[in-house]
Amino acid sequence: MTDAWHWKSACEIRDAVQGGAVSATQVAEDHLAHIDAVDGQVDAFTQVWRDKALEMAAAVDAKAARGEPLGPLAGVPVSLKELLCTRYGKTTCASKMLAGFESPYDATVVKKLEDADAVFLGKVNMDEFAMGSSTENSALKTTKNPWDLTCVPGGSSGGSAASVAAGECALSLGSDTGGSIRQPACLCGCVGLKPTYGRVSRFGLVAFASSLDQIGPLTRTVEDAALALRVISGKDPMDATSADMPAADVTDALTGDIAGLRVGLPREYFTDALNPEMREKIEQAVDVYRAHGAEIVDISLPCSNYAIAVYYIICTAEASANLARFDGVRYGFRHPDAKTVQDMYVLSKSEGFGPEVQRRIMLGTYVLSSGYYDAYYLKAQKARALIKKDFDAAFEQCDVIAGPTSPTASFAFGAKSDNPLEMYLSDIYTISVNLATLPGISLPCGLTDTGLPAGLQLIARPFEEATLLKAAHFYEANRGFDMGRPPIA
After folding, report:
1. One of 8, 23, 79, 81 is an active-site residue; which one?
2. Which of 121, 195, 455, 484 is the most exposed place for a label (fewest CB within 10 A)?
């Protein structure tokens, strides 16, 4: 059904609602019906807020009826990752530890979406506490890739990516600590934007690793990602790490003009670790820039090989500190058999947290412990500075860096879950972007021979999302093919 609203972009829906061609209620009802039709197979949604969605849509329609100007996301159906605090519904982080938890406040990004007249359809699945690359670590359900239901959707924002790819929403908010927006966007064939650290408020985001986490959109098009960033970005007094900058009005940057653009290709990204078919797709994408006059520059990021080790020291250390608050005292799971304070801590955390979360807490506690702090955590922070220095030097030669998002396309359930190191390597190309606090985006660049999406990653200087989105939008408009829709459609 080519005219179904659930396959329209956020910008198309916004324009139609603002122009009176369709009501927000009609759009919401169409998406809810589509969720009913396909989510039994995809399992992206953990909570479907039918009543809330129709209430928000009716409020948009009433606003239009009064002749009031509508917001920039008028009537756009949105899904929210399970770690974004909302007063409505539950905020579980896909963990038994927070089963049934009701937040007393909304995250700043949630408020901004509501103020922009978006319509919330509900919350979507994720790896528990955002720790994973396949969404197999969820305590709630197993989300499937709409392109192949036997394959993972990526992670940790797998539910966000799957909900967009399956046409269940036009926009989803995820979080990215080491690739958790970009990698699932790649595997599910949608656009995933990780903004510069500090560009978007983290207030109301349940923290995994506070120096790495960043909220961002997953969308159907680059234009939608630019629109979403404009809405959710900006200084927030509730977040001390939020940059003192106005909202990023980057939609004007999508000009289609890449005159003088310099595209850097890191030689470290094109090794035997990259699947040959994925490499071919990336090289074809780079050829689009080359054919339209962009300068292709050979660059080096020599410290990239340390990124995985550095990341899994820093992120586990921060996770160990952040997750200490889930002690079963004030909120969260408390084991019914606990008789003493020590029992409460040990039993509650042992049963409340899943295996991957426990693994990372133990790793983080170890690297922060007396006698090991300097050898691991301090050394990792020094190496992180070197990784950022590599990017600084590279950006003296180029405006954006291009490469793969993931070393492979999506993989079958269970293929990597028994080997944590192999799973961690799924994020080998995305992790360094978080370590260096840079903006990055993944966008579809074709399908493999088995019909699974490949993703092109672009990276830019801090707070240069305008340049990043301009380059991404140009490729999307000139790649010469349409990605089509997943078979689930």
Report:
1. 81
2. 484
